[in-house]
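## Example record

The block below lists the input lines for one assembly entry, exactly as stored, with component labels intact.
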Amino acid sequence: MPQFFLNKRLIILLVSIIILVSLIGFSLRERDSVTWPEQFLKDMTGWVQNIVAGPTQYIAGFFENVQDLQNTYEENKELKSRLDKLAFLEAEVQLLEKDNAELREILEKEDSLTDYEPIQATVIGRNPLRWEEKLTINKGTRDGIEANMAVITANGLIGKVKSAQTFTSTIQLVSSKDPTNRISAVVQDGEKKEETFGLIEGYDEKTKRLLMTKIPYDAKVEKGQMVVTSGYGGVFPKGLPIGKVVEVTPAEYGLTQTAYIEPNADLYDIQHVMVTKLNSINPEIQEELEELNEEEES
Amino acid sequence: MRKYLLPLLFIFLFVIESTFALMVAPTEMFANERWLIPHFLLGAIMLLVIFGSRKLGLLYAFIFGLLFDIVYTEIIGINLFLFPVVTYIVYQLMKILQNNLIVTTIITLFGVALMELGSYGVNYIISITTMGFSDFIFMRFIPTLILNLIFIVIVIFPLKKYFERYVERLSL
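Predicted structure tokens for the full assembly:
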């Protein structure tokens, strides 16, 4: 390329770099919603993705079934042993639920942070470049999905809704390394009934572990303890399982601790998800909102 | 109908990349995690600019770069910039090199490598990724090149025939 750096081309290159930087800056700032041309293009792609994803999932499902057949005997044995325990658990759950409802009635508290309405959805696409882990699902605002709702599979939390279009939505996984991707979480101590708060932010690809930061330095977090969502962010329900603590280390300046968490849900092989629609918002936030309203009125 | 086959082919490749990412999870191979990133769309665009016409290739690179950013990455600018630049560099290289299938395969693979390095660089700067460079090379770069080499070898001959005929028909 002998004439590559002629004046005209150099200028085009420089101008396009300037445009590139400003465009990246534009899209990196926190946006509440994407613009309508973006929404339209995403929905159109979602429509094509739906067509393509159907047959491919059918074929992939066939191969999976063949593989499953090989392990059927072993699985059956294990499932039977679990079935015995299930009857007891069911009876216990029913009793507890009844208890809970009665106690709530006494307290005159109807909604709780744990109540949510699941919206079933199928994953139809994934960001092929994988720098940011993002999924596309086949449900959108038409089905009641809004930005920032928590997304779970049967095993636990996998992420949140980044943006919702009319027919499709984009999900950001917890493993995504966006600096604004944080989740308020709690480490549960089963015996002492103590709760330790922290933030889930960051992911280590090599060990496949989530990082939980901002744990107080004097909190006693141990290996094997369960981590669930705290519900104090206001949009996530309380008590969605995230994972188990694997390792605890002091953070950089020793003021806080960092825990490494093995996620419960498989963050790679995801086909069906549930989007959680919260029935009530955090009572503390609600109170604050009411106070603000009163102040405005007076 | 034949006129719309080319855009339809590229839209299909565009969508199939996300379906591929959905179906093929990073797998354990040779005692380490390997990420296979499909660059089928870019591969086909580079072949279009080599065998078809320069104008058409750059136009498709621009349109699908923008579409890629809007739909998949949600950060507008990275692929919008990288797609046309990589396509242009490949076009310029092919002008001074021999135009046979082996050279074309190598140059197209070089384009994919440029794309991967470029997108790693930009994503590292804006701290979307914190992956170290050696991790990037062994976990992502080399497996990705192998995957895309297989893709290019499979499609290069049929696409060459198709693009050449398409451009011929356009100029008639």
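The domain at 183-263 of chain A is CATH 2.40.10.350 (Thrombin, subunit H). Chain A has a mean pLDDT of 83.
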